[in-house]
Specification:
With 141 residues, this protein is an alpha/beta fold. It has a single domain, classed as 3-Layer(aba) Sandwich (Rossmann fold). 38% of the residues lie in helices and 18% in strands. The chain has five helices and five strands, in the order H-E-H-E-H-E-H-E-E-H. Strands 2-1-3-4-5 form a five-stranded parallel beta sheet, with helices on both faces. The longest helix is centred in the N-terminal third of the chain and has 13 residues.
């Protein structure tokens, strides 16, 4: 029995549902694979529009991990603002190869630079979901 199987069988709660929003398919796949191996239920989107479609279909999502720079009409910060406005219980983790100059404070529950430190992201997701909503700090770096 694997560690993931032990974690899942030890818990009677359904797995945490994560939506990864990343335009780079290799990064998206890698993060999704790692999160799946840790027992999270993962959905994927390649841009903000696809992520909004997932949310609007009523999919249960506990947290979103989104890149800032993506193709399309909106970036990850605009997506984070949308999530805050319409899905306030969903935790938002923003990741980027650049440090945003503004717009992230009060919108994101955490920020991580690229390249991804997957272990830190996993620990932060777990910490965010065990804390009361909207009380977590804006930066995790």
């Amino acid at each position: 029995m694997t560690a993931t199987t032990l974690r899942q069988s030890a818990s009677s709660q359904p797995p945490t549902r994560i939506l990864i929003v990343e335009d780079d398919p290799i990064l998206r796949f890698t993060l999704a694979m790692e999160l799946n191996q840790e027992g999270f239920a993962v959905r994927e989107a390649r841009d903000a529009d696809e992520a909004e479609t997932v949310l609007q279909t009523g999919a249960a999502i506990d947290a979103i991990v989104t890149d800032i720079e993506m193709p399309g009409a909106r970036d990850g910060i605009a997506l984070a603002k949308y999530v805050r406005a319409f899905y306030p219980g969903v935790r938002v983790i923003v990741v980027s190869g650049i440090v945003p100059k503004s717009g992230i404070v009060g919108v994101a529950d955490a920020f991580f630079g690229k390249p991804y430190d997957i272990e830190r992201i996993i620990l932060r997701v777990r910490a965010l979901l065990s804390a009361p909503p909207r009380l977590a700090s804006a930066h995790a770096n």
